[in-house]
Structure formats: C-alpha cells, structure tokens
C-alpha cells in the first residue's frame, strides 16, 4: 500500500477524518481500495486458471470403468475445491479448456485405419497414396493456419461446423436436419389436447425461467467433470432465418408469447399477464379457444408452413415478399418463444396395431404432413388430438442432449408436479378476463402462391418417402449388459454392425455421434464404429465353425476398441472434425487437396446415436417404469442408408428408432429392426445368461417384440399415475 501511495498524486487539503481525530490522506483510502481490488482480481484469476488447468486433465477418462487411481482422486478433490460450493449453469464456462488441435499425422493414421475395413485393397492403396501426398505437400501449411485459429477462437471447429454443415446447407430442414423427441411410450396423462398443451407450455416456460436465473445445475460427466453449457443459451426465442447462400440464427433476449398452428390457422398466444406467467389452466383455456374457433384458414395460409420445409434458397426468396406484405404475422411467428402445433389427428401406441401405430407416431413427429410444422423455430411442441406430445427440433443451434435435458424436465414437471384433475383438466381455475388468442393475418401476394404449392409438393414427396420404424426391445437391457462387465453403448454398436452386415451383406462407414462438450463451445465428434475388430467379430458370428468362446473373445476385443475410440473422440483427438477443419482451411486458401476432397465426399450409410437419460432423479423407473420418455430419432444421412437412434429405458428395455428412404431398394427399416433384435439375442447367447434369454424370447409367436398388450393409458381411467414430486 505504501508503494501505491507513492505513485498516487498528493491532493493537498483533501483529508478524511476518522473517529479519534486521526487524519488519513485521501491517498491512503485510494491505495487501500486499489490494493484490495488488485488482490481480489488476482485471486479470481488464479482460481480460474487453476480450474482450467485441472479441467484439462483427461486421465480419468482413460481409466477402466469402476476403477479410480490415486491421481484421479486427487484431481477430483481439487476440482471440487476450486469449483466452489454451489456452481450454477455457466459457472465453469470461463474455466473450460479449449478444444486441442490434434497432430495431423495421428489424424491421417487414424483415418486410414478406420477406412481399411470398408475399402478393397486397391482402393485402400489409392487412398494411402493420396494421404501420403497430403502429408508431404499441404498438411503443415493447413495445420499451421488451424493452430493459429485455435489461439484466438473459442473453439477451432464449432463455428465452422455450425456454418458449413448446417447454415450453408441448401437442403430442406425436414428429415435432412431436424430430429424429434417422443412422449411417454405407454401412458398419456390426459386425453384432453388443450389441457396437455397448457401443462406442457407452462412447464417449458418454467424451464426457461430457471434457465434465465441459472438455476439449472451444470451437467457433470460421470458426476465429476463439468460440460460446456453454451448451447443452452439459444433454446428459446430462437429461429433460423433463411438466406440465399447462408442462413443465420436469430435469438431474442425475451419473448412473451408462443405461436400456435391449428388446422392451417396461425395464432399468437400471450404467455404472461401482469401477475407473471399464466397458470396451466389459463393456458389450457387459451388453447381450447383456438380448438373451438370455427373460422377457416385463408387461401394458401393452410399450407404456408410448407415453405419452411422447402430448399433454403427458395424459402429465402419468398420470405422477402412476406417481410413486406405480412411483416407483423411473420414477426409473431419468428419472434415467439417457441412454436406449438395442435394436430387434428391422434398419435401414439394403440392396442389394435402397436407396431404400425408407433411407426406412424414417429413419422408424424419427424415430417408430419409437410405443412403443419414451422421447421425454422428452435423447436416445435406438437400436441396431438388425444393428448400425446412430441417435439420437433431444429438442429443448427444445439445438439440432442440439450433439447433432451429440456424435454425430460418438461415431461416430469407437467405430469408429476403440475398434474391433472380427475376429469383430465389442468389444476386451477380459468381466467375469463384474458383476451382471446390473436389470429394472425397473412396478406399473401399472388406471386408467392405458386411457391407455396411447389413447396407443398416437395414436402409431401419427402414426407411420403421416409420409412420410420420404432420397436421397444424388452428382452434385456442395461442391467444385463452391466452384469457382463461391458459398456452398454459399445454393446449396442457391435450389435448394429452385425445387424447391418446381415441386412446388406457388407460393411460400411458408420457414424456415431460423441460429444466434445468437455471443451469450451464443443459440440460433437464422430466415432467410426466399423473397425477391423468389429468386422472380425461379425465374420466370426457368421462362421459356423467358430465356437461361442471364440466369438465372445472377439466381441470383447471389438468392444474395447470401440471404447478406446469413444474416449479418444471425447478428449478432442478424433478424426473427422479435424479433417473437416483442414478441408475448410484448404477452401479458404484455394488449395486443391484430393485427399481432403475424398474424405469430404464420404457417405455415411449407417448413422447412429444414443439418446442419454440425463436426469434420472426426475423419474422413478422402478415404481413407474412407464413414465420415461421413449427417446427420439432422425432421418438417414444417405439416400441408401439408415438412421438409427436408441435409448435405454430403465434397466431392462431399449427403444430403437430406425429411419430410411422408401425410394431405396437397398434399405428397409423394418427388416433392419428384425436384424437388430436377432443380433442382440445372438450376442446375448454368447454369455452365461444368454442361452436362457435366447430360449425364452426367440419364439415371438403372435407377440410383437417389446410391445405390451395391456399397456396403460390414462384415457381409460385405470392408470396409476405419480402425482407429485414427493413420489421420487
């Protein structure tokens, strides 16, 4: 402080007086304040730096499951000390490390290893020559630019991934980009459409309120390593605006209404009053008013939303006309907190035809009729006429775990905490003083009518071409796999390799999404699941001369390889995002790289993803196993490929969502589903408990695998529904 006082000017005559008559110069007060501020700033900086260094440690990720070394225990204790007692959602953001740029030599080596099983000897030799030429001539230059970017950018690849993979794509969002999330599989808390919409919208807005106040705890991987929370910022009040060459994401600070579509008519429904957020019963009242409104849709208004399913350049051009002719209505939709679609048809599992009804449910969520979703919004809440729910999510702003986290909260809150009356209505009382929902008026110029018709034809063609299949696999689940001391995800991935080989008779490049949110603004990385080890296992399973112990040994080797690839991808040392970033740099520099061009043109004929259940504390899977979301799905990445997602429901069930194109003669979603079921049972038979499982479930008879004939539906009034959060 004395040194600081010497550097400060001397204001003569200016003094402060303390009790006791002692006089201290103003310089002393300023010196004390400056010293305290510098000390506090240095302390905060040191804590953030120490935490960032601690979070850069990934040794824990490489340790065997269930075992924790002494260094990792010490690391975990230090992370908890430096994290503070009550971290909030964005507490760790400034301390997260940046995603590292891998060695280009290692990346190319891993790439060649990944394509070896799917290429002939001649094709592989040609690829190896291109790779060697790339390393010799261009790799060092491109890598240098990439490292330079990594020094100043928050993440060296995520901004380019968002721009070039999503925002610059000119294809329709429907099926090609958007994905869906499902309701409870076997139960519907109320058959009243307006009531379910009221509770669900209220629950979503409660989530937004908690998000704004950072009351959502940060996600911790394995309960100890925080993940990046940046993607949560754009869940609400967000829309993807089409552009001629590139879209952009528009995010508002706040929005106090939702946009609603019912029978081709658009409405603006306020979500707040002077007293704050509307109650679920008040929201139900507003949605019921919309359902009771007999007014018809205006000409072309009914199919207007098909434009959001059109190719992006076309939609961008039409939107310019809407901005001038129907600016108020367009702003009401794009500026809404989110979009709500009140469908006129029922959906969900039925006793009469469980398989077909679930497939139709998935199709309605993924594509609908092509004109009943606003695909540009960050997400659309879909409420069917029988009270079933669903979610259609735009992909550019975030990945599935973010919307999945919100969806788990929504289902748990609207069903368990908010609840319903015995007659199916929301709890509480209507508010007769609320104004009627505002009907949006679209002044659609004549010149865009042909564009709407063209967009509708294209959307219907795309919708009719998608083949969706869902099947709940209930023969065994996560508990059996854990008893085998194996990773549940790796177990499923190897079963998918076996099933796909039986379906197509050959191996193919396989995409599995792995998150890179261990790093600041990290998104995803690809795990190339079709490895040489996996192929060796599949060939052994198809070779009758191989014994079960031999197949089991190869299976364990393949699982270990997959686990190693998954951990490598999560720690920022994967293949595809690095090669993608190098390709983008080469385009910026106008450098022609045959090797990177070949990598960029690869087609993923098997695209897979696991949907995690992140908030198990919200659900009681033991007492109420039916009250868990059944996951979601997405469209195939290739015209002749499959999209497969899966979710573990509790300990003894796995739900698969399979999609493909009907126009392809090489794919059939139902056929692959049967192969997946057979593959899982065949793999289970390799273990000590397996033969019992196989004998018990192999003969399906008239039962459809996984569907329960006596499934519960509260429409009959017989369901035992948990009503409060105290049940958990």
TrEMBL record:
Choline/carnitine acyltransferase domain residues: 100-677
Q: Note the superkingdom of the native organism.
A: Eukaryota
**Similarity field:** Belongs to the carnitine/choline acetyltransferase family.
Q: Does the keyword Hydrolase apply?
A: no
> What organism is listed for this UniProt entry?
Galeopterus variegatus (Malayan flying lemur)
Q: Which residues cross the membrane?
A: 29-51
Please indicate if the UniProt record lists Protein biosynthesis as a keyword. no
Per its UniProt record, what Pfam families does this chain match?
Carn_acyltransf
> Which key words are in the record?
Acyltransferase, Membrane, Transferase, Transmembrane, Transmembrane helix
Q: Supply the gene name.
A: CPT1C
Show the InterPro entries listed in the entry: Carn_acyl_trans, CAT-like_dom_sf, Cho/carn_acyl_trans, Cho/carn_acyl_trans_2
Q: What is the protein's name according to its record?
A: Carnitine O-palmitoyltransferase 1, brain isoform isoform X5
